[in-house]
Amino acid sequence: MVRILVAGGLGFIGSHLVERLLRRDDLDECLVVDNLWTGCPQNLDHVLDPRLRVLIADVEQASFDGRFDEIYHLASPASPPWYMAEPLRTISANVIGAMRLLEVLAPGGQFAFTSTSEVYGEPQVSPQPESYRGSVDCTGPRASYDESKRCVEAMLFEARRVLGVRVKVVRLFNVFGPRTRVDDGRAVSNFISQGLRGAPLTIFGDGAQTRSWGYIDDIAEALERYFWRDGVDFAGPLNIGNDREISVLEVARYVQGFFPGTPIVHLAPAPQDPSNRRPDLTTARRVLPGWRCAVPYEEGVVRTIAWFRAEMGLEDAAPARAMPAALSAGAANAHRFATSRGVGI
pTM above 0.85? Predict the structure, then answer.
């Protein structure tokens, strides 16, 4: 039987991962450690599995009982407003957290780490393959997140090279969906929460910057397959995301369609906001054959609006409109186009 530790397991992505871990028949115990910095207890309130234990603590300082066969390190904020507000704490959660977790990894155990597309910085190459070393600013305003993720990657691959530690590293691209914090601060969640409050949708800069929006169900499926289900023997790094590239302005206009009369307001550009993000998924398609982001961002937004509405206690309010007809047709066409070309969207 297997003992598993998930650092950051009450967070957005972490809680979805924990749900999937609890489906395993070989699981004896799943310990979640989370300090509730960006995690929320209600993300796992519905889980009644007695194999789940929750420890509220900083991962760097937590006291653990014994060692663990598998460790999943997701203990870090991922939204710029959050990590830029507390950069030293962000670095500590990633780097010191990884060092502490390595101490409690059982001999022969596996250490899995969720890194980020932010390690590519302001990319001069698109799409970005794992071999691309990036165009980064190691002293800039985003460095606490970008560089601490890069440092943990270096730490783990050195532990693999020198000590033989089994590691798996993924680089995630712009994940969104249910259980994102209402005050998360990133584009999709911002637009939805603003629209539900009747507030203007705020874009930093002109909105021409692009992202590749991956719906959480698709991303969690890839993590499950890569980390344990498919028996993959590949250390990474592995890009996981949606390779359909969409501008922030286009997303804002799409969300605006659900909230008639809501204006879009442009604010000053965010510091060092990357101009583009698109994963090269060549390796992912080889390592995880058949996997793709099957949920178009348009459909993902509809599902996320419904979740945010309930989270904000607006179930009795007038519901957001159904997917606008023109946009619905556009989403369907995009889906057919991508499918016909074998492209994950």
Answer: yes
